[in-house]
Amino acid sequence: MPFAETADGVALHYQLHGSGEPLVLLAGQSNNHHWWDCVRDDFAARFTTLVLDHRGTGESDRPDTDTYSTPGFARDVVAVLDHAGIDRAHVYGTSMGGRIAQWLAADHPERVGRLVLGCTSPGAPHGVERGPEVRAALSQADPDAARRALLELMYTPGWLAEQERLRPGREFHTLGDPAMPAYARRRHLRASARHDAWEALARIGAPTLVVHGTDDVFNPAANAPLLAARIPDARTFLVPGARHAYFEEFAGVATAQVLAFLGGSGPAQPPLP
């Protein structure tokens, strides 16, 4: 397993699969590279995919230091690209991974080809925050109830019922890295909550596609048009009926659109149907 080392001495685990142009896939808050297991092969059929464990997750180091931030995570990605010998890559980030991708494209434009921002936000104070009822559901004292609430924020009830029928007890890789220490979870939460890339978004020059599920209340869908309006020439694709984990449940629709966008040339393509 390859490991890159950051400027502050943190070892970051990453993996490469597939062939073709490089594509970095960035996972959400408190999640490791398994976030992408459901669709990674679809991308690896056309791209050399790079997934990594953010600091604090997976096989990467878990420093208990004040070094967790979305711009800092973006610098971590640059360290991984350097170690892998990749000068420039397309980038697809979802949830907090999309927040990281914003900084990567704004602060390191020479490293980013095409950019896809999924189910993400520009951050406070300009973004649309989740409602108090969502926060209350996630902070329930009963861990089983809180887990169920998170599942229902990620996926539609019908799809969950079908998964429970076909694959009872299946593992979901979007609910957080179970091996993360509590301090790392807190630091990830704080890093995501402090994200504010509003001013930086205007500097993004990469052709950009913003993707969001229309029924996402975990990271409200109203953030998609905000991002698209702020990033020059960005386009939006909304996935009807999808919640936060649109990229898994609605992979048949979303992955095809992302692949079409990544395979384009020149400026950002018109809105995809």
From TrEMBL:
<protein>
    <submittedName>
        <fullName>Alpha/beta fold hydrolase</fullName>
    </submittedName>
</protein>
<dbReference type="Pfam" id="PF00561">
    <property type="entry name" value="Abhydrolase_1"/>
</dbReference>
<dbReference type="GO" id="GO:0016787">
    <property type="term" value="F:hydrolase activity"/>
</dbReference>
<dbReference type="InterPro" id="IPR000073">
    <property type="entry name" value="AB_hydrolase_1"/>
</dbReference>
<feature type="domain" description="AB hydrolase-1">
    <location>
        <begin position="22"/>
        <end position="249"/>
    </location>
</feature>
<dbReference type="InterPro" id="IPR050471">
    <property type="entry name" value="AB_hydrolase"/>
</dbReference>
<dbReference type="InterPro" id="IPR029058">
    <property type="entry name" value="AB_hydrolase_fold"/>
</dbReference>
<keyword id="KW-0378">Hydrolase</keyword>
